[in-house]
Structure formats: structure tokens, C-alpha cells
């Protein structure tokens, strides 16, 4: 199974990504986590990534591709992947499509999790005390939502045109969101087949 999760901050990409990976035996590849790990490694690249994340800005496409490509290549040769937070810009989507073509694979679905901004903001503020993330802050969250709308929002029509968009209401408890996703995928999914 090869899926991607397309969603604004706070919609539950991470939670649903982990569940989906366990459900279908694919690898959960979380762009934000991989980039945060690079930021922790330090050096000039790490500092650049950390600064982008703290501001709520996107990390430059080339850095993202350098970090994500090895993980995607490895997972494509195994049980597939659940891409969480990648691609997040149109150039990243084009690069991801080129990479998949080179690997001889294609996406089964792009799952679009949506919820109203006030729900997203409330969840991110709730998470702030536990996450320790520099971007879960009241002055950064509105900027992250704007960046999402302007830069990642255009991926919704992009994947709709390609016929693989699956839209799910993320303003529900996690179990209900997971059940909806699985129901919507059941026509496509062959859990454990390692497709
Ligand atoms: P959220 O989606 O809740 O903001 P993530 O952990 O997915 O959380 O992303 C956190 C931050 O990591 C983003 O604000 C951005 O700085 C960076 N990031 C994650 N994925 C990408 C990507 N594909 N392209 C550029 N930056 C990214």
C-alpha cells in the first residue's frame, strides 16, 4: 500500500499515519519527525531546519527531498509507505511523482483530512504543553495555518485531478477518523499483502 496524508497542522496526520501503517503493513514516513531529527543532529543544515520549523515556515524543497528520498526508496522496496507531511508543495509533489515513476510504483490514494481552523488551533494549543515543539505556540499557529492554505492547499486539486483524492472529516474522535479512512480504502486495500 502506498498512501499520502494531506492535512493542515493539527488534523491528526501523525496519529492516523501510525494507525494506517500498522493496519496495512506499510512504513509510516513522517516528514516533520525526520526533519526534527536532522535539526537535532545540529550543524548548519540542522540549524537552518530548526529555524524554519520554529517560525512555522516550510523547509526548502531541496532539503526536504534530500532527507525524505532515501526513506521513500527503502520503503518502496518493502511493504510500501504512508507519507505523512510529504509532499507539501507542488514542486515536492512533482518530484515525488518522478521518484515513484523511477521506482516503478504509484500512489494508491491521497487521504485529505480536513477540519475547521478553530478546531485545529484548539488541538495545537492543547498539544503545546506536551509536545515541547517550538511551533506549537499561540503566535506561530496562525502562520502555520496560512502557510498550509497557501502552499499545501493546491495539492488538493492536484490529487483530485489525478483521481486519487479521498476526503475524510478529521473533526471526529481518532477512532472514527481511522474507521472512515479504512472504510474508504477498503476497495483499494489489501492489508498484509505488501503490495
Ligand atoms: P504539522 O503538520 O502539524 O505542522 P509536521 O511535524 O508535519 O507538523 O511539520 C512541522 C514542520 O516541519 C513544518 O511546519 C515545516 O517547517 C516542516 N516540514 C514538515 N514537512 C515538510 C515538507 N514536506 N516541506 C517543508 N517543510 C516541512
Question: What topology does this entry show?
Answer:
Layout: E1 2-6, H1 13-24, E2 27-30, H2 31-41, H3 43-55, H4 61-76, E3 81-84, H5 90-103, E4 109-114, H6 117-131, H7 141-152, H8 155-161, E5 165-169, H9 174-185
Parallel strand pairs: 1-3, 1-4, 2-3, 4-5
Bound molecules: adenosine-5'-diphosphate.
Adenosine-5'-diphosphate binds at residues 9-10, 13, 31-32, 35, 52-53, 56-59, 64, 85-86, 88, 92, 135, 144.
Characteristics of this structure?
5 strands; single chain; globular; alpha/beta; disordered C terminus; binds adenosine-5'-diphosphate; 195 residues; five-stranded parallel β-sheet
How would you characterize the overall build of this protein?
There is one protein chain. The chain contains nine helices and five strands; from the N terminus they run E-H-E-H-H-H-E-H-E-H-H-H-E-H. With 195 residues, the chain is of the alpha/beta class. The protein has a five-stranded parallel β-sheet with strand order 2-3-1-4-5, with helices on both faces. Helix 1 crosses helix 9 and helix 2 crosses helix 3. The protein is globular and about 40 Å long. Mean pLDDT is 94; it is low at 191-195. Bound molecules: adenosine-5'-diphosphate. Adenosine-5'-diphosphate is lined by residues 9-10, 13, 31-32, 35, 52-53, 56-59, 64, 85-86, 88, 92, 135, 144.
Amino acid at each position: 500500500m502506498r498512501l499520502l496524508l494531506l492535512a493542515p497542522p493539527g488534523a491528526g496526520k501523525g496519529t492516523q499515519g501510525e494507525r494506517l501503517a500498522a493496519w496495512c503493513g506499510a512504513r509510516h514516513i513522517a516528514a516533520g519527525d525526520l526533519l526534527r531529527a536532522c535539526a537535532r543532529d545540529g550543524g548548519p543544515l540542522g540549524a537552518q531546519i530548526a529555524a524554519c520549523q520554529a517560525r512555522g515556515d516550510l523547509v526548502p524543497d531541496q532539503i526536504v527531498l534530500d532527507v525524505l528520498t532515501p526513506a521513500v526508496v527503502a520503503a518502496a522496496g518493502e511493504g510500501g509507505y504512508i507519507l505523512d507531511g510529504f509532499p507539501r508543495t507542488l514542486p515536492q509533489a512533482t518530484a515525488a511523482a518522478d521518484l515513484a515513476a523511477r521506482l516503478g510504483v504509484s500512489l494508491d490514494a491521497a487521504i485529505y483530512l480536513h477540519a475547521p481552523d478553530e478546531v485545529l488551533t484548539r488541538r495545537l494549543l492543547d498539544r503545546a504543553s506536551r509536545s515541547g515543539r517550538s511551533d506549537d505556540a499561540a503566535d506561530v499557529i496562525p502562520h502555520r495555518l496560512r502557510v498550509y492554505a497557501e502552499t499545501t492547499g493546491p495539492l488538493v486539486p492536484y490529487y483530485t485531478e489525478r483521481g486519487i483524492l479521498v476526503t475524510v472529516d478529521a473533526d471526529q474522535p481518532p477512532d472514527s477518523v481511522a474507521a472512515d479512512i479504512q472504510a474508504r480504502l477498503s476497495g483499494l486495500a489489501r492489508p498484509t499483502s505488501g503490495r
